[in-house]
């Protein structure tokens, strides 16, 4: 098959996503909703804060009374009460008076601003003060250090919008708004199924012709990293009976998506492709992607199935390109794109005419992002070299129409697993 006859990556992805629908929803306690996607807008029932309150520990005053205050000429005010957080003020502040107030406590009537403790005689000695007096050492303007009603949230406003994926801070604002339960999208259950007579378990000894089943564990971890539940079905041997039994096992467990690895390329045994085609409506493609040209997609008894290649690197790259967006769409996530940036390529790169996702290390040097496709012994981009993905933190994306990129080119880089940590400052 010539490169021109291969299915473009974008066309394959669009076809897959056209056949994926967001899952239903369920109401859960917010303690169970981290990383879930909201299925409806959440509306604030109350103003937050519900009353005018102090943003600082200090003294509630009438701003005009202290407009001329300074360390050399402090303004002396009489303290009429002490207002801790959680207690309502009992007195009105009048000219020449102040109320000692804690952060979050309601502002007393009459007061228009709060002077911080640091700007009063509590932080600096002032002579000849009576026990019920305070000296103000700096002026304040009206509403300084005061939180108005609804500053954070206004009653009737949207706290969070439908489609938002809930983070720790979102859980906090839901609690502040009195929303102990919310409607969220269901977590996708993704069946992981490796195929092949050559596979043995991770705790089994290797014998001639055998390799350990790494794909199942890689795929399960990837599924979990994108907020889905991995249902590990083990290994299906290259027999019709075994493969059908594994598919039925997944269906019985109510999975929302099948991910298989191996058995979909031109050279693979026909049993995998035959069973998949027999059990559902399947398409077997040769896609213009490197690594990971063989790909399958179809529906098995109403459940989408994505057949990934068997080589471990090709399988992981194909997951990122095709399975990851499908999982995110199942969970109704509004964003499917991978976090990307532009970086300076450190060596010449040749391309074969397919969209190439090259393992690479992104690092910082001279105030710029740089990226290399070589390092830690990685000199080739073979689809079976899983250790290269351990070294890599990014994928360099080379479009299919570009056959050569010279060193110094600015290239698109996919961040594989960035969690906010600093990038390296040198090549390892």
Provide a quick synopsis of the model.
18% of the residues lie in helices and 30% in strands. The protein has 428 residues and is an alpha/beta fold.
Explain the overall architecture.
By secondary structure, the chain is α/β, with parallel strands linked by helices. It has 4 domains: 166 residues, Molybdenum Cofactor Biosythetic Enzyme, Chain A (3-Layer(aba) Sandwich), CATH 3.40.980; 60 residues, Alpha-Beta Complex (Molybdopterin biosynthesis moea protein, domain 2); 95 residues, Molybdopterin biosynthesis moea protein, domain 3 (Molybdopterin biosynthesis moeA protein, domain 3, Beta Complex), CATH 2.170.190.11; 76 residues, MoeA, C-terminal, domain IV (Beta-clip, Beta Barrel), CATH 2.40.340.10. It is built from 7 helices and 27 strands. The strands form 8 sheets. A 6-stranded mixed β-sheet has the order 15-12-16-20-19-17, sandwiched between helices. The mean pLDDT is 90.
Q: What is the fold's blueprint, element by element?
A:
Elements: H1 9-18, E1 25-29, E2 42-43, E3 53-54, E4 58-61, E5 75-83, E6 97-101, E7 113-116, E8 133-136, E9 146-147, E10 158-160, H2 168-176, E11 181-185, E12 189-195, E13 199-200, E14 211-212, H3 215-225, E15 229-236, H4 240-252, E16 257-261, H5 270-279, E17 280-286, E18 289-290, E19 294-300, E20 303-308, H6 312-330, E21 340-345, E22 349-350, E23 355-365, E24 368-372, H7 387-391, E25 394-398, E26 404-405, E27 410-415
Parallel strand pairs: 5-6, 12-15, 12-16, 13-14, 16-20, 18-23, 21-24
Antiparallel strand pairs: 1-11, 2-10, 3-9, 4-6, 4-7, 5-8, 17-19, 19-20, 21-27, 22-26, 23-24, 23-25, 25-27
């Amino acid at each position: 098959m010539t490169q021109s006859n291969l299915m473009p990556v974008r066309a394959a992805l669009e076809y897959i996503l056209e056949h994926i629908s967001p899952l239903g929803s369920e109401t859960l306690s917010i303690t169970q909703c981290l990383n879930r996607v909201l299925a409806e807008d959440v509306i604030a029932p109350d103003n937050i804060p519900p009353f005018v309150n102090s943003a600082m520990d200090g003294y509630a005053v009438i701003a005009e009374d202290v407009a001329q205050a300074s360390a050399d000429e402090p303004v002396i005010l009489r303290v009429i009460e002490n207002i801790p957080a959680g207690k309502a003020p009992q007195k009105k502040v009048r000219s020449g008076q102040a109320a000692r107030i804690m952060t979050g406590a309601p502002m007393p009537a009459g007061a228009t601003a709060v002077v911080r403790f640091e700007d009063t005689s509590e932080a600096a000695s002032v002579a000849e003060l009576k026990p019920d007096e305070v000296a103000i050492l700096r002026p304040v303007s009206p509403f300084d250090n005061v939180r108005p009603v609804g500053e954070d949230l206004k009653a009737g406003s949207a706290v969070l919008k439908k489609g938002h994926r809930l983070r720790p801070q979102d859980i906090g604002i839901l609690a502040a708004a009195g929303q102990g339960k919310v409607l969220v999208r269901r977590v996708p259950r993704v069946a992981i199924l490796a195929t092949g007579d050559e596979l043995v378990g991770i705790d089994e000894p290797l014998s001639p012709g055998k390799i350990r089943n790494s794909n199942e564990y890689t795929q399960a971890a990837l599924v979990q990293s994108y907020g889905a539940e991995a249902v590990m079905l083990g290994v299906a041997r290259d027999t019709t009976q075994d493969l059908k039994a594994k598919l039925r096992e997944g269906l019985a467990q109510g999975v929302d998506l099948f991910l298989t690895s191996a058995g979909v390329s031109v050279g693979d045994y026909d049993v995998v492709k035959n069973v998949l085609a027999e059990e559902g409506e399947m398409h077997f493609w040769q896609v213009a992607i490197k690594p990971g040209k063989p790909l399958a997609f179809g529906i098995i008894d109403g459940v989408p199935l994505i057949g990934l290649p068997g080589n471990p690197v090709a399988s992981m790259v194909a997951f990122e390109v095709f399975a990851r967006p499908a999982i995110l769409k199942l969970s109704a996530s509004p964003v499917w794109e991978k976090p990307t940036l532009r970086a300076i390529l450190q060596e010449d790169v040749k391309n074969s005419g397919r969209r190439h996702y090259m393992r690479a290390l992104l690092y910082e040097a001279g105030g710029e992002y740089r990226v290399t496709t070589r390092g830690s012994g990685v000199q080739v981009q073979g689809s079976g070299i899983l250790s290269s993905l351990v070294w890599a933190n990014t994928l360099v994306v080379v479009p299919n129409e570009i056959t050569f990129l010279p060193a110094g080119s600015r290239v698109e880089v996919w961040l594989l697993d960035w969690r906010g940590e600093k990038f390296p400052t040198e090549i390892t």
